[in-house]
Structures are given as C-alpha cells and as structure tokens.
C-alpha cells in the first residue's frame, strides 16, 4: 500500500509540473501574439509615415508649382477674370 501511495504522490507531482509548463507555454503564446501584433502595427505606421514623407517631399518639390500653374493657366479663371473686368467697367 505504501508503494501505491508513493506512486500516486509521484504522479501528482508530475501532473503539477505538466500544468505549470502548460501555463508557461500559454503565457509565452500570449506574449508572442502581443509582440506580433505590435510589430504589425509598427510596420503599418512606418508605411504610413513613409507615404506622408514622400507626399510632402513631392509637394515641396513639384506640387506647389503644379497647383500654381494649374490656377494661372486655368481657362475658367481667365474667363472669370475677363467677365469681372467687363462688369467692373
């Protein structure tokens, strides 16, 4: 009977150790999921920042000039100014 009790106690110890390992594995999994989510968000933010940086650079180098030329060369603007000039006389 003593051997059986000792064997049961040993099995209980093994079960407790396996439960502890399972909890550790679950905690690591959750931690890894959080890390993957954070890395994904960081990558998305970097893409957005890069796009904004590129758009800002384009606007600084060419965009303002293109907008100004479009406004200055606009047929509608010319017609509107002409109409206002005629009305003002």
> Approximately what portion of the residues adopt beta-strand conformation?
under 5%
Low-confidence stretches: none
Average of pLDDT: 84
Radius of gyration: 36 Å
> Roughly how much helix do the residues carry, as a percent range?
over 70%
Task: Tell the overall outline.
Answer: rod-shaped
- How many DSSP E strands? 0
Terminus-to-terminus distance:
120 Å
Largest sheet: number of strands, sense, barrel closure: none
Helix/strand structural class? mainly alpha
Number of helices: 2
Topology order in helix (H) and strand (E) letters: HH
Using brief descriptors, characterize the structure shown.
single chain, 89 residues, mainly alpha, rod-shaped
Walk me through what this model shows.
The chain has 89 residues and is mainly alpha-helical. The chain contains two helices and no strands. The longest helix has 71 residues.
Kindly summarize this structure in a few lines.
It is built from two helices and no strands. The chain is mainly alpha-helical.
Topology:
Elements: H1 2-72, H2 75-88
């Amino acid at each position: 009977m003593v051997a059986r009790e000792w064997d049961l106690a040993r099995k209980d110890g093994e079960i407790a150790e396996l439960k502890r390992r399972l909890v550790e594995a679950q905690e690591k999994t959750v931690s890894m999921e959080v890390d993957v989510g954070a890395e994904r968000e960081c990558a998305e933010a970097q893409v957005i920042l890069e796009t904004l940086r590129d758009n800002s650079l384009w606007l600084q180098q060419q965009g303002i000039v293109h907008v100004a030329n479009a406004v200055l060369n606009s047929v509608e603007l010319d017609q509107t100014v002409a109409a206002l000039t005629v009305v003002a006389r």
